[in-house]
Amino acid sequence: MGKVVIDPVTRIEGHLKVEVEVTNGVVTDARSIGTMFRGLNAVKSRDPRDATYVTERTCGVCASAHGWASSLCLDDAFGAKVPAGGRIIRNLITSAMWLHDAALHFYHLSALDFLDITAVAKYQGQDPGLLRVKEKIGKLIAAGTAPLTPRYEPDEYCVNDPELVTLAVSHYLKALDMQAKAKKMSALFAGKQPHQSSIVVGGVTMLPNIEVVEQYRSLLLEQIDFLENVYLQDVLTFGTGPLLPLAQAGVGGGYNNFLSFGGFGLDDEKKNFFLPAGVIMDGDLSKVMAVDQSKVTEGVTYAWYKDSPKGDHPYDSDTVPDIKRKDAYSFVKAPRYDGKPVEVGNLARMLVMQPKPFMDIVAKYSIKPGVVARHAARAYEAVILAKEMLNWCNALEAEIGKVSEFTIPSIGNPPATGQGVGLTEVPRGALGHWIKIKDHKTENYQMVVPTTWNFSPKDAQGNYGPLEKALIGVPVPDENNPINIVRVVRSLNPCLACAIHLIDPQTNEIHKFKIS
Ligand code: NFE
Fold first, then answer.
1. What stretch of H or E contains 361?
2. Cα–Cα distance between 138 and 464 in angstroms, integer?
3. Exposure pattern of 10-32 as b/e (b: 16+ CB <10 Å)?
4. What's the pLDDT tens digit per position in 221-242?
5. Residues with Cβ within 6 A of ligand 1?
6. CA of 116 to the centre of ligand 1 (A)
């Protein structure tokens, strides 16, 4: 029996430490530890409309996601009705960033867990593009400056066929270009990226014209080609080839509880979504339950925060650090739905939505929830989302000319008192923002973020967080090469920057802590 500590886990967003106990080559205990306190000073006692701009600064990856969630939250609190054009432009700004995230997550963060990169040097083919890759990467390997690192030793699940590896590395390079172009798409409507400046309470500030929509559409067609013919094919090649044993064993599965808040409003931004809302418990896919936000709580029994005197629902909870808290081991709180830990993200969304082609692949290859299923879900979702975005371009063109419909409705000053909730789906999963308003100012503001759900510590009942549960049972045949651990972590696509945040109304101080 031995303890394996990975600190920091690299090739993710933010700062994460993972500790596991390994007994007879299998993980028997696990801790997910958010190590960096961020002390993001933010929105309390300010004009509620500031929330959109401040909460976007939580993260540089999913900034638009927070702008979107905070605007949905403010729409609710202000009673604002968003015009159709505003809803569609919000969808186009945020969905483009999902495409950015798909390329980033698979190629630049995860794929290297499944490739023996040294095989590039053995490429024998004549494809000029792949020969350039061989030359470029081969030089780095020969020089000992191992490229695309840090990484663990390749194991039996790593692809080592020189043709396949060289092709995959060429896709890695292509994916950099696709990331940049996806961001450009988003910026066409958002003004800029990563921190967009168009989505606001009541709608968007942007007035589109046909030229902008056409520019977006032509970049989108390029994305669809890449997602469908490169990304999805790579995931299928790996997932139904060398990784099939991992897929069928469900390595890195977990509770089989899944939550989606629903994302991308079709006609009503709060009710009818392209990616539906739903809850699945204990893997029962025949029973997708409706979401009730009142069942969301955030506990801190094992997190370095004080208990919230007014309760654990995000309308009332607070975020006050307490580094001396007994038994605490993470700066990530423990959100629960109806008291249960739930996995959020692409797999949760695809299991709630259950699109036939995806479910057919899962059935055909007997894939169980886990590492490989998450990658498959992310790739399939990216393709169907990108194709749906074409429909939104068409719908937006039909709205052009209704100029007044695009201007921000006259929403007036913030209400004297009120509250609102904004629930949506963002690349990593379910995102919720909650606000309470008093004297026209923000009295309380809480964000419950995808990575907080997935990477939470234990709760008061002693239930592991979803990642912790997913790690238990994972094979680690060599404690010096815990590659399966990072595969599980990265399949959940964490962003610890989002997961840990704090709203401090008084001091503006970035707190200092020493973690022993
Ligand atoms: Ni910082 Fe985020 C997404 C949000 S993560 S990336 O997607 O919200 O938990």
1. helix 356-364
2. 43
3. ebbbbbbbbbbbbeeeebeebbb
4. 999 999 999 999 999 999 999 9
5. 13, 59, 61-62, 65-66, 426-428, 431, 449-451, 495, 497-499
6. 29
- Structure-token match 């899944």, residue found: 258
Distance 489 CA to ligand 1 centre (A): 15
Other CB atoms within a 10 A radius of the CB of residue 160 amount to 15
Using the atom order of ligand 1, give the atom closest to the CA of residue 498: 1
The amino acid occupying position 175 is A
270: Cβ contacts below 8 Å, ≥ 6 apart: 72, 76
Could you read off the pLDDT of 175-188 as tens digits, one per residue? 999 999 999 999 99
- Give residue-wise pLDDT tens across range 191-202: 888 888 899 999
* ipTM of the modeled complex: 0.95
pLDDT of residue 407: 55
- Return the DSSP state at 400: T
Query: CA-CA distance, 459 to 490, in Å (whole number)?
Result: 23
Instruction: Name the token pair of 504.
Output: 């401090």
Average pLDDT over residues 277-290: 98
**396 contacts 276 by C-beta, under 8 angstroms:** no
Give the C-alpha separation, 157 to 238, whole Å: 9
DSSP 194-207: SS-S-EETTEES--
Residues 85-99, mean pLDDT to the nearest whole number: 95
Ligand 1 centroid from CA 455, angstroms: 12
DSSP type of residue 254: -
CA dist., res. 11 & res. 109, Å (int): 5
Residue 246 token pair: 């991992």
Residue 218 C-alpha from the chain's centroid: 26
Atom of ligand 1 nearest to the CA of 14: 1
- In terms of Cα–Cα distance, which of 510, 509, 451, 454 is closest to 38? 510
The answer to which of 11-20, 85-94, 387-396, 455-464 has the lowest mean pLDDT is: 11-20
* DSSP 3-state of 421: strand
The residue-averaged pLDDT of 62-67 equals: 89
Task: Provide the pLDDT confidence category of residue 76 given band limits of 50, 70 and 90.
Answer: very high
Q: What length does the chain have?
A: 516
Average confidence (pLDDT) over 463-480: 97
